[in-house]
Amino acid sequence: MRTGGQLIVDALEANGVDRLFCVPGESYLAVLDALHDSSIETVICRQEGGAAMMADCHGRLTGKPGICFVTRGPGATNASAGVHIARQDSVPMLLFIGQVARDMKEREAFQEVDYKAFYGSIAKWVVEIDDATRIPELLTRAFAVATSGRPGPVVISLPEDMLTDEVEAVAALPYTPVETRPGQPEMDALAALLDKAERPFVILGGTRWTEASIKQMCASLERWSLPAGCSFRRQALCDQLHSSYAGDVGIGINPKLGKYIKESDLVLLVGCRFGEMPSSSYTLLKSPYPDQTLVHVYPDPHELGRVYRPTVAINATPAAFAEAFAGTSPAKSPVWANRTEELHQSYLEWSTPPATGPGDVHMGPIMSYLEEVLPEDVIICNGAGNFATWMHRYHRHRRFNTQAAPTSGSMGYGMPAGVAAKHIFRDREVIVWAGDGDFMMHGQEFATAVQYHLPVIVVILNNGIYGTIRMHQEREYPGRVSGTSLQNPDFAAYARAFGGHGETVERTADFAPAFERARASGKPSIIEIKLDPEAITPTKTLSDIRSGK
């Protein structure tokens, strides 16, 4: 006889779960009690949104579902930000929510929420377990749903009294991963299209890649001399010093690269949906009928043809496609080889930081310094805002699994992601790249980093404004500032108050020694950069935008 809470933990252990992220609640005390005797490490977080984002980062960096537990009502609604990220970013995640007792449902009992209604449009599947004997069945299914096809979040509601029921149930077995492989006719069709192409381009994105498949894909790009880019915030899918790499296909794309993609005669999309941000509002590829011949590779058949009509649709995981593509070779010397070299040189120029800028702190030299001292396997975590442009444009990712950033554009992601990344990879350096408004959304998770002795380095670009919104505001309503000014704490003192290390940078020359002291401290650290609001982008100031330059 096992309680429902014990059966939940049994099923997690059977599926290889080694850690979970939670904010405790009385609605799932039976699970917390079962975890007391489990080998699963429980990471206690400070807010449910942060816990869910940590679970997302775990799924993003491991390919295995990140696990999050929250309590009912406010806990469940707080967690929704992380669920939305996992949905838009196609990341496997399981969110377990305590629920009111079964005999109190439908009365709007204390903190009662209908989770099927609340999460129905953003979760991949929502289930409420009313019978404890079905826990092994439904959790095996939850793991399968979260990881198959287009991965995503699954929400599991757990009535409080069900978790204390003692029942006999079958032993949980692990889920079976589902790999979808391309057929030979589709691969032959792709090879034929490449043989006829003159201006092809490859875009890598999405999830379900592996380190081995990235190596295979990069070798194939070199063999075919194919120019390639990475979709928005998927830059760790290609060594950016690879001879085929042409740049980030995302917000603020290199104009030369954008022009080339629009004029391409063949686009090969591998693993990505190519949504609004990477497609430049569906202008690089027109929806529903692209100007270019389109070959779309995706693991979920429901996405093939949903936004773009492909000439060839290949229902396959990126890893399986990379393996199949590794068996192909060009029938003749590619006519586009010189263009590939030109695009790579254009990327190198585009990703070289500027030497100067407005104010006393210049981000260009700081980025150059970081490129010199950061190891190739450093993990960069960030949320959303103009501050991220400095890292996205000027940091050259060299290895797989070195980026954790939300393609959904969710603020507040960097700090919790940094905690999760360092918890998973304790031997690797983790940098959280944040803005002042961005950091304050989940900055309390710095306490979690301190509690678990996770020496992440948080770099906060503090310009005292919601920068992205202010930029748009100055463009659309010049000089009419409303709702975008911020008054911030002393972030270095904030770090010290939690038991971490704090630094303040007010001149460019201050950064390098501050960074080295943060490294040497062995503590979670915050380096606050006092950035002039005029330095709103690498190439334009606020004044430039206000004047329409």
What does the model show?
The chain is α/β, with parallel strands linked by helices. It has 3 domains: 166 residues, Rossmann fold, CATH 3.40.50; 166 residues, Rossmann fold (3-Layer(aba) Sandwich); 195 residues, Rossmann fold. 36% of the residues lie in helices and 17% in strands. It is built from 21 helices and 20 strands. The strands form 4 sheets. Strands 3-2-4-5-7-6 form a 6-stranded parallel beta sheet. A 6-stranded parallel beta sheet has the order 11-10-9-12-13-14, sandwiched between helices. β6, α7 and β7 form a beta-alpha-beta unit. α3 runs parallel beside α5, α3 crosses α15 and α9 crosses α11. The longest helix is centred in the N-terminal third of the chain and has 15 residues. The radius of gyration is 24 Å and the shape is globular. The mean pLDDT is 97.
